[in-house]
Amino acid sequence: MAKAAGVSVTTVSHALNDATSSRVKAETQQHVRDVARNLGYAPNRLASGLRNQRSQILGLVSDEITTTPFAGAMIRGAQDAAYERGYVVMVVNSGLDSELEHREITMLQQHQVDGVVYARLYHQGVELPPALSGIPTVLLDAVTGDPSVSSIVPDEVNAAETAVEALIRAGHTRIGMINNVDDIPATHGRLEGFHNALRRHGIEHDPRHLVIAEPETSGGREAALALLSQQDSPTALFCFSDRVAMGAYQAATALGLTIPDDVSIVGIDNLELIADSLWPGLTTVALPHYDMGRWAVNRVLDDIDNPDTPPEQVRLACPLIERGSVGPPRT
């Protein structure tokens, strides 16, 4: 490889293994990489790991993620970030079994993982298992009371504000919310965002237009039936999730209402299995699972390289995905 590139072995090593190194000129670095690509050469990560006393392996410990539609984006983001930095990710899934989780963490330790991403299916508060003590660990879609642990979660308040702003821009002032009955951060954050958006535009909230429901299609259907059957009913509904929004679609159909002519509906999740399949397509706010997975891996690798890096608790903004479920209110 060095002979083909016309440089020293040391230069090859720096060019291929240290993308930010100032020890090799940019043009030389690019030349070496071009030669490596033409030769089909790949660096020996095992040898590199032995020199650095690292396994080049990260663990991703999840609860139920691998059995849900969210798995692909979150895990893909983690794996992409790991691959770009010469690592692989071992994914284990406990299925909410604490004993199994402990065995999985022990197995990861036996494989001498360099760090762990501790991930949850949805934004929630957790306590880190004692078995992770001493291992660089970052929380994904979860928070803890320990300020020394870095974490990333969706910005729930921002997500709700984004959803409600879409309805207000369309001209709605009678906006109902179907919120979750569960005591979790998303429930409280989305309610706060709902009120924030109304307040920002001087819209008075009618307490009758807030209904608490089970976060399932059936819960959304029952709640929407109650809201849309009221006198002076809402002209638009902000739903806790896409599953709840699907129930709201069913309620509107049962009442002979057309979406978005008679009622506009917005959800949160961008669960494409639902949002793309509904007719018209559901306008919703996407939870940034891919970006959260990438951030978590990059952060744990930064901690491995620089253990004194101050911890971060990050809340990631959530983009609006516009489809066909929002229109102006009927005059």
UniProtKB/TrEMBL annotation:
Keyword Iron applies: no
Which UniProt keywords are given for this protein, alphabetically ordered? DNA-binding, Repressor, Transcription, Transcription regulation
Q: Which domain of life is it from?
A: Bacteria
Report the GO molecular function annotations.
DNA-binding transcription factor activity; transcription cis-regulatory region binding
- Which PROSITE patterns does this entry report, sorted A to Z? HTH_LACI_2
Which Pfam families does the entry mention? LacI (PF00356), Peripla_BP_1 (PF00532)
> From which source organism is this entry?
Arthrobacter globiformis (strain ATCC 8010 / DSM 20124 / JCM 1332 / NBRC 12137 / NCIMB 8907 / NRRL B-2979 / 168)
User: Which residue range or ranges hold the HTH lacI-type domain?
Assistant: 1-52
This protein is called what? Answer: Putative LacI family transcriptional regulator
The UniProt entry, under CDD domains, shows: HTH_LacI, PBP1_sucrose_transcription_regulator
Record-linked Gene3D superfamilies:
3.40.50.2300, lambda repressor-like DNA-binding domains
